[in-house]
Each structure stands twice: as structure tokens, then as C-alpha cells.
Amino acid sequence: MDVNSTLTPSEKLSQAVVRGMQEKKASEIVLMDLRNVKNAVADFFVLCTGNSDTQIDAIAESVDEQVIKELNENPWHQEGKDNKEWMLIDYVNVVAHIFRQEKREFYALETLWGDALIYSYEETP
Known about the structure:
The protein is of the alpha+beta class. It has a single domain, classed as 2-Layer Sandwich (Beta Polymerase, domain 2). The chain is 36% helix and 25% strand. The chain contains 4 helices and 6 strands; from the N terminus they run αββαβββααβ. It has helices at 9-23, 53-71, 101-107, 109-112; strands at 27-33, 44-49, 77-79, 86-90, 94-99, 117-120. A hairpin with a 3-residue loop joins β4 and β5. α1 packs antiparallel against α2. The chain is globular and about 35 Å long. The chain starts with 8 loop residues before the first helix and ends in a 5-residue tail after the last strand. The mean pLDDT is 92.
């Protein structure tokens, strides 16, 4: 994604979600651009993996804080806060998915939405 161009609202939101994930050292961060995928439920999915209940909570909280700080937006819907295996933060056009490794492998959203453009983010040191 060209950061020098004018970003759409959903692009700005997806980038804020990524920054929130990076802030708490989420691993395997992937941005899936679904805008050209037929019947897609959102413009973007942003996926990451957390290694513990504590980290998964921290990532979700960081995403929420980053989006509020940058764009003053609250999620429309959230799921999974109790089970800590797959947390979902739905901003309508952008959906953040925070997985435990086993659940991420099981659901394999990257392959399920195979027509999406997929951007991977390097691990932050």
C-alpha cells in the first residue's frame, strides 16, 4: 500500500490497527485487502497472533487505544474477550483478528480469502 498517496478512511483505519498490534509485539501481522473480492464482508481484515492470554488482551486493548487516538473511532462489535483464542474487533469496514496460533492455523483465513491482496509486516525488534 502506497503511504504517500491519499488514504481512504478504511486504509487509515487498517493502518492504525496494524500500529496497535505492533505496539504490543504481535507476531505474523497480515493485512488482507478484500476490496476487490466478491461478497467480501469488509474492506480489510488485519490478522495477528498472540502467544498468551495476557498478550492477546494487551494487543486488543492497544488496537482499541490506537484507533481511538488516531481516528476517534470505537468498534461496532467485539467477540472473544472471554475465551482468548480468537478475539475479533469489528470496525465494519476493517475487522481485526487476534489469534492464538492453533486457532489461526485451524481457520486459515489467509487461504479462505485467497483472492485478497495480502501484505505481511515484519516483526518489530
